[in-house]
């Protein structure tokens, strides 16, 4: 049904270059669900026009003045309308709510770039509909001078649909206060009602700590970027009430960032802000120590690339899911159940195979991962690894060298690559095929460096030898006496038999991701994005079919 509507909506403007009222001349284009006349409702409107109750598509809707029509009549009249080809303007009315509207597809008004204008409505307290549902609200939105209108709960929807294409001011609570001009000047005169800031918060050597402390006390959200550079502050606890710093990279025309850089006295952040849809840079703060909690928040939403050169400080209250790797290759001291490792993970000739089951749940490594001179064949002890993020500039995020038997790395679909300014280095692994796909996954801000592997990023001229035939290409064969791992055989036999009675077999049930997965958000938005692309493709195809 919706599909059919989209089809009609997109195809008609092709025929009507100049907008006319009334049904189309070509009867073949007539749509029984469409009202072909603009709807005007004003103070002299006593009755609503007697139109088909099946109408779902309108042209333009103008509501103006002291409306005498009751809310019940309005609700009944607009029951099925969700589409306005030429916009919605509600200006200077006495309405308290617009709950009779349920916009889903709205193009801009004739005389402006705005698809929806809600202005000067002195009694309006709530919108009564959710902009999130207005999937095809094009153009911009204007919501101004409605003195009783509190938009706090509507902002997410408005931002999701219109992002920066919005003008919102003069309401009881607006969707953020737009940062105009230099930030230091703006903040000193910012009204205390500004709970959300819209734009770039730029704190620098000229910022006044007293002003920041006072003005940020009630700010809970930044829709835009944050930059703290060249300050002498020892912490950023004046930002502690901020819960979210976000931007939608799919909608916004700019990519925003959180940048905390060149602050010589900064010891701790003291922030709780979650990052969603921004880049992250924290570096050149020589005294700074970032806590796992702060990092967890910074990676809570959709994260664009991160650029870190930081120390991570563990406290005794740090979540047990975060584990610090001491500078030792032994896994014996590693606790069980770690999901995030901080430090440099090294597999070498002393690889502690027996304790490697402790890596089973690891998803993220903040630091580096080295495999050198090992007898490993696969990395099946790390089936859940998702990402490796550098926290030191002098370390390659991944360094895999001199492993004669290694033929498979990051074989699972979960692995998403590295966030790093350094290259991954993979060399002298004669069995390892670094195919083009694997190389593209290992590309951070720099291309991976490969050489003397079985394959080297599609450049096969350096291949030295024919790959050796390996009859049992699994680690079990290398580490004699150590029992089998998951991949070899697991839970196929009855408890107590050989395959169950080993250090690999842990009492886990397959993890049904109940808790918040760090990367759930992006997947959601990606699939949503893709859905609308498919929708668009389908629409284009339909148009072609018609013209054929
Ligand atoms: C109300 O709208 C009608 C058109 O529907 C228009 O003729 C009339 O002038 C308008 N009245 C006022 C007071 O704006
Ligand atoms: C909104 O109403 C006011 C008061 O009647 C009028 O001055 C203004 O031009 C109207 N705005 C629009 C965009 O029609
Ligand atoms: C709207 O507000 C005016 C004051 O501006 C008031 O006189 C009027 O009764 C209100 N109307 C409604 C329907 O609440
Ligand atoms: C914070 O908000 C409260 C109530 O919303 C208000 O009373 C207080 O003055 C505000 N504080 C600042 C510093 O603006
Ligand atoms: C905000 O900062 C970003 C870079 O982080 C920049 O691209 C953008 O133009 C800035 N926006 C404004 C409004 O200053
Ligand atoms: C954490 O360590 C501090 C001292 O470093 C100690 O006073 C505090 O009791 C510890 N907290 C817990 C929960 O162990
Ligand atoms: C571990 O690192 C510390 C300081 O970084 C150093 O003093 C110590 O010798 C290192 N231990 C080993 C076994 O490398
Ligand atoms: C590689 O491992 C072997 C033992 O398997 C050891 O003798 C040799 O010294 C190691 N080489 C390097 C470069 O670490
Ligand atoms: C790899 O092996 C070569 C030759 O055996 C040796 O020169 C090199 O140092 C080794 N690299 C590492 C990282 O162990
Ligand atoms: C299981 O392991 C224990 C010790 O590790 C051993 O005593 C026992 O015989 C094993 N059971 C089976 C069925 O292999
Ligand atoms: C696994 O579960 C069994 C019974 O459910 C229990 O006896 C055993 O101790 C558990 N083993 C481990 C390593 O937790
Ligand atoms: C779908 O098409 C509309 C215009 O018809 C465009 O604005 C929108 O960005 C498209 N969406 C995607 C995901 O391509």
TrEMBL record:
Keyword Plastid found: no
Signal peptide boundaries: 1-17
Domain of life, per lineage: Eukaryota
Keyword Transcription recorded: no
Keywords of this entry: Signal
InterPro entries reported for this sequence: Rcpt_L-dom (IPR000494), Rcpt_L-dom_sf (IPR036941), SPS2_domain (IPR053079)
Domain Receptor L-domain: 194-295, 337-435
The name this protein goes by in its record: Receptor L-domain domain-containing protein
Organism: Caenorhabditis nigoni
